[in-house]
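To illustrate the input format used throughout this study, we show a single complete record. The first block contains the structure-token representation of the backbone; no residue identities are included at this stage. The design step must infer an amino acid for every position from geometry alone.
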């Protein structure tokens, strides 16, 4: 009987570790996705601010973010430099990323 209990305990610990590691993996992937979306949104906003593409800078950033499955948390344009913050849902949490784009200082 004690061998069966040990095997069941080992199996339970292994399953808990597997679920935990999978959760960390999902969070890491979502974090990278948020960073990529923030980069793309900042570039779109900076391009709109410079006139390279048409549209209002922060609306362009929001459009890109929504298409990527995220949400634009903030957007600021100072001259030709755009700064955006993006959130991407990770279960009950959210991954956040910030990016700036524009001409070199």
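Output of the design step:
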């Amino acid at each position: 009987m004690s061998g069966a209990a040990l095997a069941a305990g080992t199996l339970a610990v292994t399953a808990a570790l597997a679920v935990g590691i999978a959760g960390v993996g999902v969070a890491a992937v979502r974090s990278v996705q948020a960073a990529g979306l923030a980069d793309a949104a900042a570039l779109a906003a900076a391009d709109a601010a410079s006139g390279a593409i048409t549209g209002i800078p922060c609306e362009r950033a929001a459009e890109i973010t929504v298409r990527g499955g995220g949400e634009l948390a903030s957007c600021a344009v100072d001259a030709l430099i755009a700064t955006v913050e993006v959130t991407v849902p990770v279960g009950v949490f959210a991954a956040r990323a910030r990016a700036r784009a524009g001409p070199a200082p």
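Structural context for interpreting the output: The chain has one domain: 2-101. Residues 33 and 85 are 13 Å apart (CA to CA).
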